[in-house]
Amino acid sequence: MKWIRVAAIVFLVAVSSACLLADFVAPASYEQQFRDVPDAAASAQHLLGTDDLGRDRFSRLLYGTRVSLLLAPAAALLSSLLAALIGGAAGFLGGWLESCVMAATDLFLSLPWLFLLITVRAFLPLNVSPFASVTITFALLGFLGWAAAARVVCADARALCSSDIVLLARATGSSGFRLLWRHIVPNLKPVLSAQFWISIPVFILTEANLGMLGLGVAEPLPSWGSMLRELESFSAFSAQPCQFVPLVLLVLTVSCFHLALQKQELWA
Amino acid sequence: MQPCDPGDSFSMRRIGKHAARILIVLLLGGFLGATLVRLAPGFGVDEEELDSRLNQESIQALRQTPAADASLPGFYLRYLSRLLHGDLGSSQTLHEPVRQLLAERFPETLKSVALGLVLGWTFGLTLAMLATMSRVWWIGLGAFLLASVLLCIPAAVLAILFVIAEAPGRLVIGLIVFPKIFHYARNLLGQSASLPHVLTARAKGLGTLRVLLWHVLPVAAPQLLALAGVSVSLAFAAAIPVEVLCDLPGIGQLAWKAALGRDLELLVNLTMIVTLTTLLANSAADLAAQPLHAGEA
Known about the structure:
The complex is a heterodimer of chains A (268) and B (297). By secondary structure, chain A is an all-alpha fold. Chain A is built from 11 helices and no strands. Chain B contains 11 helices and no strands.
């Protein structure tokens, strides 16, 4: 089923390109209000209609996708780097440092993810500018999402330390930083890369949850989470199918991430 | 006098180890929480100080209480001492003792979480067993697609969809737990089903149910029990958006209200309670899996 993976990757590239080119593709700015047509249905002028404030939904979707799709990988990169640093150092140095790091990861993994996130989010100012809110949201995801990855990296680094290549390198006189930089880190790249890609859909979904709870990206800046809040005012009497487009795009994107990461044998 | 069974002392040692681990994690978590409360912007400032009707003496009296908590270790020790006396403090936003709020709302969340876990496990494990053992290809594919789609929908959106459909909100937690159980259980059972002794049993003509119950499930049981512990944490995390959006008065909704009102003391206590519950669930799962591991050895 290689073609499904290829199709998923093509979809992700297409969505990423469209949101990167939002400045050129979007018919309006994400905050521009068309006050004469609030809650408008889809039309040639507004492809996905407008929201209750008269903002073009298609433009907001493009900009919102840009926020979620650019910053979730940034948060994943941050958490992977932290995992590499903390888990790698613990696995390489071992001893009490490894025990302390494992205890810290135990603590982080014992706390339910959303409880931890909203607790730490509440310690930071809630009434901030949209750009500050977006930075806080994704920085939090990055800073709090390292624990599971660090555990994997630590186990991998520990296994590498007793592997033949590292023993050979030690025998030839490599030690300390040189051993870490030349022999351990390059061999940790595959596991770090896997952790990075696995984290992206998790962070996208978490941002969506936080956004729907009003603890994510602040208005008027759109993100998938803040756009999905529109569903709260959905009513069967004034049903607008276009309100579901952000949800469909979110589900498709996250599915494509999963499909692109799926191991070949699962399709067998 | 009966000689002490080495198995019993081993079990007691394991229980003691788990209890010590829970205590250390709670103390560390409590310290982190207390540190965050103490260092959070606005600590020690009371809204009532802005009341123009208060004279200087009243304002001084208001400032005296936070002044006692000025140093971090002092603040933590006082926090621990109050905790040991069963005093969890008072909510700043709801103006009620945290203990009372927990007593009112925790059972509601436990009910939702328990129902969600039962549903998630029943459907997840049943479909995983069918997908592994059945020769009908569409059962496995259908269950895989359903679980994959559910895995891609945020918990908050599922809750909203249930509100729109006027369906009971508690069921959402089951739908959030189900895909994770299904995927893990399917992989675990798949690995067990491809072991040589299972293939031999099948080749000898043993029935599917017998192979599953006698040869596949016992091998996967320790990992499934570990998954049971983890699923409690998942269910509690899902309780926040579900209770908020479906208007269920549990601790998830309370945590959200506390977060929006920056009621840090309440939030830290809630997080500690949920952490304790998940740690107990993980430890229970680990201890229950121990005899199975021993059996394997």
